[in-house]
Amino acid sequence: MNRSTPIAAVVLLAVIVIGLAAGTSAFTPVKYGTVEVVTKFGGLTGRVLTEGLSWKTPFIEGTDKFVTLVQSYETSARPDSSLADFTDSPVSAQTVDGQQISISYTVLFRVAPDDVIDVLRHIGRMGEVVENVVKANSRSLSRLHAQGFDAEDLYSGAGIFEYQATVEDALRRQLEAAGVTMPPDGFKLRKIEFDSDYVQAIENQQIAQEKIRTAEFDAEAAEWRKEGAIRLSEGDKQREILLAEADAQRTRLSAEAQADARKLSAAAEAYAIEQQGAALRRYPEVIQWTFVQNLDVEWGILPDTGVTPLLPVPLGD
Question: 3-class DSSP state for residue 35?
Fold first, then answer.
């Protein structure tokens, strides 16, 4: 057997292995939400491979992965239980009236693919972006702008939205200057905690104010009841007056009705007498007839010239 055969086989195998390695190195799959920054001998080439299968020069060019999805940086009292991408402790700050507060918030941010090269060149990888841009600016600005608000405004909620908008506006400008963008509502104020003594003082003040409001309500209710009683009393008096007026009106109407009845009765009687007189003047015999009817006699003779009553003469035995 020729001794060159094993050597040729080894060379062929080496060529195959090198070819496979070159092919594996040349074709780079890029996952969605990330980019691969192409480097050459450790330097940035300016090429950025986006999601999908991309090609680079094997053995010469390398890549660095950079996440372009929205990331979250969160401060909280329990950072170990947070699901944010980057966690931290709350920010200690002081209000304009000297009250100590603890601020918990969340910052949403991302680095766009077109800005990855500049960010890598001037800031670094994502860890440096979070530490030197997001964390440094958000903690500083949240502490700084808290000094422009009264503790009561931040405690009651009246100034919370203004404070959140103020910090977000300033933070957005700082991040964009470094090539880091924030989505709408990218700064979310989660909680502001106050010193326990201050909280107790506020609660005592609210209790006192509630007592004052209750006393004012009771006073208004008493006044309303008093006015109601007065109105009721006035109503009773008015009702008595109306009833008295109604009785007087009823008595007057009854008297007028009785007077009218008497007038009508007298008028009717007079009319009847007048009619009787007229009848008697027309028929004078009626008087004689009436006179005879009223006599208590058994019989009599009525001559033409007058009436001569015949009295019964008692007969002797």
Answer: strand
User: Based on the number of CB atoms within 10 Å of its own CB, is 188 exposed (0-12), middle (13-18) or buried (19 or more)?
Assistant: middle
pLDDT tier for residue 311 given thresholds of 50, 70 and 90: very low
Owning domain of residue 60: 7-67
In a shared domain, residues 257 and 238: yes
Same domain, 42 and 85: no
* 85 closest CA partner among 136, 137, 139, 135: 135
Tell me how crowded residue 49 is: count the other CB atoms within 10 A of its CB.
Answer: 20
Residue-by-residue DSSP string for 243-310: HHHHHHHHHHHHHHHHHHHHHHHHHHHHHHHHHHHHHHHH-THHHHHHHHHH---S--B--TT--B--
Same domain, 168 and 279: no
- Single pTM value for the model: 0.59
**Assigned domain for 212 exists:** no
Mark whether 116 and 60 lie in a shared domain. no
